[in-house]
């Protein structure tokens, strides 16, 4: 494959921030510099692109950021990018800036924005930065491990007070459409039950109450229940449990706490690998691809193909959680 006549690439982070984004930025910038490619940083995602809010990124600008959470390029939602006019404007700005490629780090919405630009002639390379692990074409997304570790630490602390007061604790973790964070937190945190968007919410909540009553009959005086945010109101579930069982129940919502904090070694490693491989792919002529983890290694797929891929729900880990909770 012939190498492109590259000159300059743009780089932005978009949508919800994810720990490890800075590690990916660092890897992209330094790998590009190695290949004598100029990197233009775009602030505040697609919104910043539409406003022309840019800066040159040199090696010094990405020093000492690998361990930092958030994103030095900042991020934002951009309603204008959902319109044909906004997409046309963004594509024209990429051409005015003379960008040979636009690198986008973000989740499904951000990658969909990249796809719209690719259809307007912009070469786009995407990296999956989303704590929810909700890009079905990839086995791993940047930020997931840190979010799980944050949840696990919170569960450990809540278990201490739950045990002391002989209460039931409900902890709501992030995950609007996918329950991977909740399920992993439930397993590694030793929860008695997990409520997931993939499972029938009403049935699942009734099972939670049945499990708590069964645990009390066996002498267990405290319980930990993990709920994904996409299921609904953790506080309402706490009231339902307390009314049905008579056990004092408290709800804790982690919310955006899981987006922050220093990224784990795993997130730093995958973000660095994806960033490096993304630039190498571009140098070799790659166009309109999204970086993914497949069979445990870094790979890439066509953006549209990746967004359209649907991974079937596998309840194996949920069954494992149920058995381990006994």
Describe this structure in words.
This protein is α/β, with parallel strands linked by helices and 326 residues long. It has eleven helices and eleven strands. The protein has helices spanning 21-34, 45-51, 84-96, 108-118, 144-165, 180-188, 201-217, 234-245, 265-283, 303-308, 316-325, and strands at residues 8-13, 38-42, 54-56, 101-106, 124-128, 168-173, 193-195, 223-228, 249-253, 289-294, 297-302. A seven-stranded mixed β-sheet has the order 3-2-1-4-5-10-11, with helices on both faces. Strands 7-8-6-9 form a four-stranded parallel β-sheet, with helices on both faces. β4, α4 and β5 form a beta-alpha-beta unit.
Secondary-structure map with pairings?
Layout: E1 8-13, H1 21-34, E2 38-42, H2 45-51, E3 54-56, H3 84-96, E4 101-106, H4 108-118, E5 124-128, H5 144-165, E6 168-173, H6 180-188, E7 193-195, H7 201-217, E8 223-228, H8 234-245, E9 249-253, H9 265-283, E10 289-294, E11 297-302, H10 303-308, H11 316-325
Parallel strand pairs: 1-2, 1-4, 4-5, 5-10, 6-8, 6-9, 7-8
Antiparallel strand pairs: 2-3, 10-11
Helix pairs in contact: 1-9, 5-6, 6-11, 7-8
């Amino acid at each position: 494959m012939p190498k492109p006549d590259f000159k300059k690439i743009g780089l932005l982070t978009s949508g919800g921030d994810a720990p490890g984004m800075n590690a990916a930025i660092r890897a992209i910038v330094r790998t590009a510099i190695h290949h004598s490619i100029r990197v233009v940083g775009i602030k505040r995602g697609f919104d910043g692109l539409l406003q022309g809010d840019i800066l040159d990124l040199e090696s010094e600008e990405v020093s000492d950021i690998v361990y930092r959470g958030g994103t030095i390029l900042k991020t934002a939602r951009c309603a204008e990018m959902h319109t044909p006019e906004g997409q046309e404007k963004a594509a024209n700005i990429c051409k005015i800036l003379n960008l040979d490629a636009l690198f986008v780090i973000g989740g499904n919405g951000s990658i969909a924005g990249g796809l719209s630009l690719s259809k307007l002639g912009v070469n786009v390379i995407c990296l999956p930065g989303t704590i929810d692990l909700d890009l079905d074409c990839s086995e791993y997304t940047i930020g997931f491990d840190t979010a799980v570790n944050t949840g696990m630490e919170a569960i450990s602390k809540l278990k201490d007070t739950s045990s002391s007061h002989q209460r039931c604790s409900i902890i709501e973790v992030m995950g609007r459409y996918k329950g991977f964070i909740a399920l992993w937190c439930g397993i590694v945190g030793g929860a008695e039950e997990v409520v997931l968007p993939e499972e029938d919410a009403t049935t699942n909540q009734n099972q939670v109450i049945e499990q708590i009553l069964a645990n009390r009959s066996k002498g267990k005086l405290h319980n930990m229940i993990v709920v994904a945010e996409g299921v609904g109101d953790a506080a309402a579930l706490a009231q339902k449990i307390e009314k049905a069982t008579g056990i004092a129940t408290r709800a804790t919502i982690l919310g955006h706490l899981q987006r922050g904090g220093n990224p784990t070694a795993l997130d730093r490693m995958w973000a660095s690998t994806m960033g490096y491989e993304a630039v190498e792919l571009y140098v070799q002529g790659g166009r309109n691809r999204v970086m993914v983890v497949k069979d445990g290694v870094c790979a890439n797929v066509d953006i549209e193909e990746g967004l359209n891929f649907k991974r079937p729900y596998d309840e194996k880990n949920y069954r494992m959680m149920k058995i381990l909770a006994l």
